[in-house]
What we know:
4 helices
Amino acid sequence: MAGFEKLRIWQQAHKLMLEVHTIAKSLPSDERFRDRSQIERSSSSVPDNIAEGYTSYYYNNKMKGMYTARREAGETQNHLRKLEGKKYIDKERSDRLVNEYEELIKGINAYIKYIRRKRDSDD
């Protein structure tokens, strides 16, 4: 098991990414290169950047990966709302996923604070 896989935020991001990809597969074929591609990329980018940040050597690079993961989580929330607006997913599912991403963002924020404290104490 890789070190980043032990992080709760990575586990949560990975689980969300898998669910979002399942939704994306159900979209109509004419959305294949529009909404499907965008939501798959942004949702995949969240755990990817958490892993990249975790495995970075320097504290500032670790935080940079987490900042990117946080932005991509926000982008995925927006894509979910777009799919809801286009009636591809229902409001209940959209609300649940948006809220789960919001909890993930809070977890990423807490991890950034942890990294910052560690960096500042090592100076």
